[in-house]
Specification:
alpha/beta, 3-stranded parallel sheet, 3 strands, globular
Length: about 150
């Protein structure tokens, strides 16, 4: 039994030549039943979709930042996929992860306004289901355009 949650590449890193095959792919959320913090990315990148792990690209600063901030007790390496113990640790700490749009692209600028608005609606519904957790938007581009009405 693997210690990596389901991954299309079964726990190995993608080759650059394989990444295009993950355009429009998806990534599973880290679903925390009672989140204290919900971290929201704009959308998964191709590497992330390839290994079904949030913020998986090796040079992504997300996991090192979470560790440096004290939110995680160890440095997560999701570049091969997310280990089950890492996912469990996030849930146990009350941290959930999702994306505004669950469609993998090479760049967030490839998303259209309708997708971003639909994602914002989904996020509002998700947050309305329970106590309002703190949230963190990890994106830089696209969100203001997509959620403005």
């Amino acid at each position: 039994m693997s210690d990596i949650r389901h991954s299309p590449l079964e726990g190995r890193r993608p080759k650059r030549t394989e990444l295009a095959g993950f355009i429009d792919g998806t990534v599973d959320d880290i679903r925390c039943p009672h989140p204290k913090l919900l971290i929201v990315g704009i959308n998964p990148g191709l590497w992330t979709a390839a290994v079904n792990a949030p913020f998986a690209y090796p040079d992504n600063r997300f996991w090192p930042s979470l560790f440096a901030s004290g939110l995680t007790p160890w440095q997560v390496d999701a570049s091969y996929g997310l280990r089950l113990r890492d996912e469990r640790m996030m849930i146990d700490r009350g941290i959930g992860l999702t994306n505004l749009v669950n469609r993998a692209t090479a760049k967030a600028s490839e998303l259209n306004t309708a997708e971003l608005r639909q994602g914002a609606d989904r996020l509002r519904e998700l947050c309305a289901r329970g106590p309002s957790p703190g949230h963190c938007d990890t994106g830089h581009h696209g969100v203001p355009t997509g959620v403005r009405r």
